[in-house]
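Justification of computing resources. Each target in the renewal requires a structure prediction run like the one illustrated here; the chain below, 187 residues long, is used simply to show the kind of job we budget for.
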Amino acid sequence: MKKFTPILWLQRPIHWSLIFGLISLLVSCGASEIPLGPTSLNSRYTEEQPTLSGNGRFLAFVSNRNGSHQLLMYDLQQQTFVRIPGLNRPETISESPSLSYTGRYIVYLTSDQGRPVVALYDRAIQQSQILTPAYRGWVRNPGVSPDGRYVVFETASRGQWDIEVLDRGPNVELDIPNGAAVDGPTN
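Resulting structure tokens:
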């Protein structure tokens, strides 16, 4: 009877490949695998619900970077993030952004006492206001017209999803390109 002896030259490559495989796995799980900087649009976190401004310059989206669920705005021309102070409040979720023509107005969903509400952020004055504070039903999918006057959203106030159009009024400061003609309100 012949005795079986393992071949060492075959075991060594398997051993070293296992070591190199584990090392490469550990290195690839490191925090610095994706270069992140002030101008990087994508990150290793979830980015979702993108929307473009009417002029194509600004991008708003929801991100989980920085350890919290927040709405971010990115200037595609300058390749930098735009500061939007006061929009992302602690312990609230902002979702479903929509931008006006130049990105002055951002309409989004947020929570107020546990219910979703439609809010509008004005970048010119850096303030948010809730547009549906006393709405009886649930709301979702808000959108803003290019000039910022009209806001649309879905509501379930009648027990089914319907579309509502909210007119912010003829006296709002419109978001229009410089030099564009503005038609007066029609009655």
